[in-house]
Amino acid sequence: MTTKPVAIFRHSPGEGAGYFATFLDAHRLPHVLIPIDAGASVPRDVDDFSGLCFMGGPMSVNDDLPWLAPSFALIRFAVARGVPVIGHCLGGQMMAKALGGSVSRNAVKELGWGRVEVTSPLAADWLGDIAAFDAFHWHGETFSLPPGATRLLKSAYCENQAFALGPHLAMQCHVEMTEAMIRDWNHVWAAEKAAPGPSVQTPEEMYPGMEARINAMRQVADRLYRRWIAGLKAE
User: Fold this and answer.
1) Which residues does 201 contact at the CB level (< 8 Å), separation at least 6?
2) Which of 50, 91, 152, 192 has the maximum number of C-beta atoms within 10 A of its C-beta?
3) Residue 235 lies in a domain
4) Which CDD domains does the annotation name (predicted)?
5) CA angle 108-197-143, nearest 5°?
6) pTM score
């Protein structure tokens, strides 16, 4: 398909590419990690990449961080050039803000497993006949839809769980999770200072049946990622 790599932007050591990298490897698609958390610079253009992927992180897109403005500019440049962009959680929020939406505090935090539902017939282009699935969540903020975007998913506690804009996909939920990532994030669960409740699971509530839950979510991730790589820019 293409020999140009997908650029994967990591913003926090514990929030790497997860299953997204596994998927690319399975499809023999090259990728390169750009560790922003380790001081890597944001590229100024997209000529060397077939697509851009922005991962999560504990920071806010509204923080005064030196790499956010160039990241927003790169996202806008990629969209203008037709280079596909995909975002997971913070990455989805970055896409929303870069493209004219906003990011603000969600009514409640979402931590752990939770149901998301399809909100538009256009979601069939990304998800086929899937109408709902259990996704993994870890966020306290949410994005609005940028101009021209179509909302694809919602949950009971977050109205905007995903949007598509042409070949670009932004997600609030985490479909890239592995068991190791979930266990690692739960080491800092207490730092979230979130009271357990309908939208917040304790680590002990996340673990039962986790392998089956991850496997089911990967079927969804496969569909989303397969649709996304169809737009990758060839040489």
Assistant:
1) 111, 112, 113
2) 91
3) no
4) GATase1_1 (cd01741)
5) 20
6) 0.96
